[in-house]
Amino acid sequence: MNERFHIHLISDSTGETTLGVLKASIAQFEGVEVQEHIWPMVRSTAQMEKVIQEIKENPGPVIFTLVSARLRQPLIEECTRLNVPCVSVLDPVIEAMAHFFNRQTVNRPGGQHTLNAEYFDRIEALHYVMAHDDGQAAQGVSEADLVLVGVSRTSKTPTSIYLANHYGLKTANVPFVPGITLPDALFHLPETLMVGLTASADRLVQIRRNRLLMLNQEPETDYVDIETVKAEISQARKLFSKNTWPVIDVTRRSIEETAAAIYQLYIRFHEEKETVDI
After folding, report:
1. For 200, phi and psi rounded to 5 degrees?
2. What is the full per-residue pLDDT of the chain (278 aa) written as tens digits?
3. What value, to the nearest 5°, has the Cα angle with vertex 138 and ends 116 and 131?
4. 125-162: b or e for each residue (b if 16 or more CB lie within 10 Å)?
């Protein structure tokens, strides 16, 4: 039986950093369930008082990103009194950077969310993904930074969204369907990285069955026939191989892991092109 714990995530910004740290950390433990208490945009003493009261009522570890000493001090003191861990996840990184750069920090809450050029690049990339999802607007695919191709349910859309949101990459995705020819434009994109996505037949059948059940559709069709799915995967792999497109198997990868692997391919793709151009 899993043991359940309260964990408090406190931030003077969106709280995304604390949530990411918690998910990465909790994955290292078995038999543990956590109830997250998320407190974003905490920037006043009154707000911190409410947070501390909640921690008193539901004691548990605290993970925080707060730049204001005025807010940090009462939180740390209360956690010490309650004998619960209280961890500032950014302090070690910021202190190391400050020492290396020989600079003082500006203590700006949510500084990473400043509306700069990178922010607007991500927004533009997200718009592009939505307009070029699932083979739409093939005529504009030449503007893509990269194109994902794969059979149904290989996480093309969520991976495209993640790549746009986190890396600012304009990502188009195109389904591979046996018997349907891919747009000719895909084979004439020398400046665009093409990536094939695949997965095991068993995994695809499982995901597709769940999809059909959710849509209240007939559960027994060629769409979930194991032999048909294996043939789809085989044909897609032959296409990827013929065009020397790199392939990523998403069977045991999360969206984040798949996107990170694709981003590394993207960096390498452009490094190699720069070397050739030189």
Report:
1. -70, 150
2. 678 899 999 998 888 889 889 988 998 998 889 999 999 989 999 999 999 999 999 999 999 999 888 999 999 999 999 999 999 998 888 888 888 988 877 666 655 555 556 777 888 999 999 999 999 988 889 999 999 999 999 999 999 999 998 899 999 999 999 999 999 999 999 999 999 999 999 999 999 999 888 888 877 788 999 999 999 999 999 999 999 999 999 999 999 999 999 999 999 998 888 776 65
3. 40
4. bbebbeebbebeeeeebeebbbbbbbbbbbbbbebbbb
237: its two tokens: 């792999």
Contact 248, 258 (CB under 8 A): yes
**Predicted structure pTM score:** 0.69
Start-to-end C-alpha separation, the chain: 61
Quote the CA–CA distance of 237 and 222 in Å, as a whole number. Answer: 19
Q: Which of these CATH numbers, 2.60.120, 1.10.3470, 3.90.1530, 3.40.50, describes 117-277? A: 3.40.50
